[in-house]
Amino acid sequence: MFRTILLLPAILSVIGFVSAKFVGIPGDVVGTRVAMDGEEYVYEVRWTWFKLGTIRLQTLSGGKAEAFIDSAPNVPFVNLHSIHYTTMDSLFYSRASYSMEKEDDDWKGMNYVYDLPAKRLFVEDVTWKSPNDQPVMRTMKDTLRLPSSTFLDGLSIAYFPRRFIHADSTVTMPTVLYGKLGETTFFFRDKHTTESIDAVENPVRVIEFDGYTTAVGIYGMTGEFTGWFSDDDAAVPIRGKLKVLVGNVTVELVSWHRTGWNPPQ
After folding, report:
1. Whole-number Å distance between alpha carbons of 205 and 90
2. Residue 265 forms part of a structural domain
3. Residue 201 lies inside a defined structural domain of this protein
4. Domain count, the chain
5. Measured distance CA(237)–CA(50) in Å, rounded
6. CA 120 distance to own-chain centroid
7. DSSP string for residues in 162-211
8. Which of 17, 50, 135, 137 has the highest count of CB atoms within 10 angstroms of its CB?
């Protein structure tokens, strides 16, 4: 059960950061500044008062992003270490994705091979000896038929909301989680409020949104989420709440590295 809870934030943590440099958001989006190369956010994952683990997010060049998920030492019977990678275009749609999890002496996970002109996604089971090595084994697992060449993967689903956080609209996107296809719907209501987090003394000004996904992840995970992003041009994710079988899991910002930025108060 705790393993299930820990993996869910990797999929629906509602935590956003986007590709390199500052990107202009077109058309239907209120302009915001997005993440810069090298910026990093660390989030703590909690179930009620119990600390389950941490998520560390980094921005790389070329529209790439990665997340490192680690269980807390005090979680019984769990020693989780997983890494999730995505490459996104300027509108935050997925253009490459893979993930891996430590299992004994190996790292095992999934790689997606994209054939966007044919609206297909090939799913591979992959084994690595270490995260920095080339795969030692690849096995074709499935072929997904996509309804569109624009879709979200398990990590970009967390970044996509930054396009619309200042808008008042509903957006539904095809979503691939752990080799399965579904949809994620975001309800952006331009709802301005405040949230208290342990990392700063005063409440943080945020914009709240919510949504749900029909995509089913590992162990059958699916469902509703709520996110709170900073109420400023940066729209940095501050807090997220996810529904799981035993209740709500909270993901909260505990530290950050972003030049010239602090949570607005």
Report:
1. 26
2. no
3. yes
4. 1
5. 21
6. 22
7. GGTTTSEEEEEEEEEETTEEEEEEEEEEEEEEEE--TTSSSPEEEEEEEE
8. 17
d(C-alpha 44, C-alpha 249), whole Å: 10
> Beta-carbon neighbour count of residue 7 at 10 Å?
22
CA distance 158 to 237: 9
- Cβ-Cβ contacts under 8 Å for 115 (sequence gap 6 or more): 121, 122
* Residue 137, CA atoms < 13 Å, CB-side half-sphere: 10
18: confidence class by pLDDT, cuts 50, 70, 90: very low
Q: pTM, whole model, 2 decimals?
A: 0.85
The one-character DSSP state at 64 is E
Token code pair at residue 102: 């430590």
Is residue 150 in some structural domain?
yes
Residue 60 counted as domain residue: yes
Domain span at 211: 2-257
Beta strands in the chain (DSSP E): 40-47, 50-59, 64-71, 81-88, 94-103, 106-115, 120-128, 137-145, 168-177, 180-195, 204-213, 223-230, 237-244, 247-257
pLDDT tens column, 81-139:
999 999 998 888 999 999 999 999 999 999 999 999 999 999 999 999 999 999 999 99
What are the CA-CA distances from residue 42 to residues 33, 69, 174, 231 (Å)?
20, 10, 27, 19
